[in-house]
Design a protein that fits this description.
The protein is an alpha/beta fold and 368 residues long. It has 17 helices and 13 strands. The structure holds uridine-diphosphate-N-acetylglucosamine (UD1).
């Protein structure tokens, strides 16, 4: 049986670039797709700009959940998405990534008896203190179709006892968006607008609770980045939660560490593409930098994306801010890791998701 009515869920910034190619591929194949935006991210710069930049149609439903504790946000998504399901009656709900909206919609769909497909299934940091790890594991448990970006995802799922028929390696949907929009992104000339020279600057993003919630750690990080900025211009498009922490704590920021508002998708992609180095705790930027061939220093103790370290341009730096300076010096001296782009990060992952979904996963189950 083919699923006839498909709901595609987006909620927070990292969802948009993963779901856009899937939604587009399903529409091109004539599927009845409903795009549902939970409203987890609601600022224009965290949400609306992505629809314009990615050429995504306006959502068919906007649930307006906003911020709150994890429990409150997850619960609000569940209640409002359940009502939306009552009206639309999806056969299949497609969720992406690891944000609270991902898990909330997967639980709702699963309990209603709709099938669930998880785009970016199988990634594991093995760090249960990360809200995203909890979301990833529980979403995979709720999902009929586990759509993985890389072989490590398949291996993790098999080790957790998932049936082989549920696991389909489709590649990395986020990289579809990179490939589709890179020329346009570069054409904007964002580095020049910011007064930066190609390969003579670094880009910083930080928002994980492990880096920004402890004020002593955040202050040490910001000081270490300030020192690096004396050697290499650093631009820091700042996530609202990080901005709030810095302002609330009255932290002094080195004037060479340039804090700017969050950027749109195209501006940020153009900025990444011509950077010398990216310093981040984001998941997606580890992957985008690998696709772009730009060295990435990940300021975390672990990564759910080990393929970016093994094959790509990523280095897992750990949590000690003292390691940032020497790592950047090494890149200034030697250029840093070049890596290779992993298999199936080829710009066609969304097409493969649509093909798997529309081929009818239930027949796959019977065959498996
Ligand atoms: C969420 C995701 C994280 C993802 C990140 C990317 C979860 C558990 N976390 O974290 O995986 O990497 O998005 O951005 O789902 N805020 C605004 N404006 C907005 C959105 C949020 O000011 O448009 C503020 C909220 O008021 C809140 C804070 O940012 O104080 C956190 O937002 P929230 O959606 O809870 O999680 P993120 O930290 O953004």
């Amino acid at each position: 049986m083919n699923p006839e009515r498909i709901a595609c869920i987006v909620g927070a910034r990292p969802n948009f670039m993963k779901m856009a190619p899937v939604h587009e591929a399903l529409r091109r194949r004539g599927a009845a797709v409903r795009l549902v935006h939970t409203g987890q991210h609601y600022d224009a710069k965290m949400s609306a700009v992505f629809f314009d930049d990615l050429g995504m149609p306006r959502p068919d439903a906007f649930l307006g959940v906003g911020s709150g504790s994890h429990a409150a946000q997850t619960a609000r998504v569940m209640e409002r998405f359940d009502e939306d399901c009552e009206a639309f009656q999806p056969d299949l709900v497609l969720v992406a990534g690891d944000v609270n909206s991902t898990l909330a919609c997967a639980i709702v769909a699963c309990k209603r008896g709709a099938a669930v497909g998880h785009v970016e299934a199988g990634l594991r940091s093995r760090d249960w203190t990360m809200p995203e790890e909890i979301n990833r594991i529980l979403t995979d448990q709720c999902s009929d179709l586990l759509l993985t970006p890389s072989a490590d995802g398949d291996a993790n799922l098999r080790a957790e006892g998932m049936a082989a028929w549920r696991i389909r390696r489709v590649g990395n949907c986020m990289i579809d968006s990179v490939r589709a929009h890179l020329d346009r992104a570069r054409g904007l000339g964002t580095p020049a607008t910011l007064g930066l020279e190609v390969r003579r600057y670094g880009v910083v993003t930080l928002h994980r609770p492990s880096n920004v919630d402890d004020l002593h750690h955040l202050a040490t990080l910001v000081a270490a980045l300030g020192q690096v900025a004396e050697r290499l211009p650093l631009v820091f498009p700042i996530h609202p939660r990080t901005q709030k922490r810095i302002v609330d704590a009255g932290l002094a920021v080195h004037p060479d560490l340039r804090l700017i508002e969050p950027l749109g998708y195209l501006e940020f992609l153009g900025l990444q593409a011509d950077a010398l180095v990216l310093l981040t705790d984001s998941g997606g930027i580890q992957e985008e930098s690998t696709a772009l061939g730009v060295p990435c220093l990940t300021l975390r103790a672990n990564t759910e994306r080990p393929i970016t370290v093994v094959e790509g341009t990523n280095t897992l730096l750990g949590t000690d801010p003292a390691s940032i300076g020497p790592a950047v010096e090494a890149i200034l001296a030697g250029g840093g890791k070049r890596g290779r782009v992993p298999d199936l990060w080829d710009g066609h992952a969304g097409e493969r998701v649509a093909d798997v979904v529309l081929a009818g996963f239930r027949t796959l189950r019977e065959a498996g």
